[in-house]
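anyone seen this seq b4? input:
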Amino acid sequence: MTELSPTKFAIEAQDGEARAGVLTTRRGRIETPVFMPVGTAGTVKGIRFEALESEDLDAKIILGNTYHLWLRPGIDVIKSAGGLHRFIGWDRALLTDSGGFQVWSLGSLRKITEEGAEFRSHVDGSLRFLSPEVSMEVQAALGSDIVMVFDECAPGEASHEETERSMSLTTRWAKRSKAAFDRLQSEGADTGRLESDGLSGLSGCQALFGIIQGAGHLDLRRISLEKTVEIGFDGYAIGGLSVGEEKSLMFEVIGDIAPRMPKDSPRYLMGVGTPEDLVEAVARGMDMFDCVLPTRNGRTGQAFTSRGKLNIKNAQWTNDSRPLDESCGCSVCRRHSRAYLRHLYMTGEMLASVLLSHHNLAFFLDTMRGVRQSIRSGDFPTFRREFTGRLGAIGENQ
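predicted toks r here
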């Protein structure tokens, strides 16, 4: 009898390195390449779940964050609710970050050792300790469908020696993450477990993804990839990019590493990036993406459009009756003008952030639909060229 897996992944079309496929999780079918909205603290900021599930957005998977949810509201609260899905009221797939990046971003407030990371909580200043084992325990309690190993992130421009130490620690932590994950699965600690029907070929268990580190050093990235694949995971992520390095270096790393990653597993580029970044990363072979930009920029008055970024604060939109993006069919663009959105923003109305964030998510998710369609129809290079060519035109008679 064939052993059941937590996920299935199949590539259905390829155009150069760009891949279009389907990732099947225990909570649904996800077409790739896919953009995953970020719901750090159990919420995609400013967006109701009804909107995320609507035809406008139709997000099949969102993110939660181990670090933030562990600190507040705390795992006991979420466990008592029956896991993160039930706590927040979301029935589709969830991926949780391990907390490694958040710990890294604390800088001088944290101390990294072989055992894990000791740091002061940004919430109440209490001393906390996060390790591979603790991260796996928290993610089992959250019941996310895809779990990330606990990793250590080196700055993008770190020295070779510093990066090698960090990368080696990440490898050792990955082994400990896998061991703890397997133990927790066998103990039934996963609050989101579903009964397998035996028909889909899925086990109903959580999936675990490994993370490739190595900053901008290609030799270390290749070693990290080799050692991570040796451990064996359900999917593989490239971490530690878009953390201050030059964009050209980021694409050099992706272009070298992505084609070397297992072809029959999903490839996840963590924390990247702008719409053009996503398209360029797809061209180099990546399948999954997340970024806070759509909602963060929405809250600061910035809209992503097919002709580049638009700052709604600019006075030139005061009497402009056009939508944010005349090529966008989202509910915001069908109903509201730039003039009205500027009015909301300038008067401090919270609806401005809600509407701009909604439009931005619609733009990112629709861009991915266009990417998938172009790969399947064999004209991704044309899509890529035309998409990139339109960007930056927002100031030209817009």
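The mean pLDDT is 94. The domain at 8-290 is CATH 3.20.20.105 (TIM Barrel). kinda curious what u guys think
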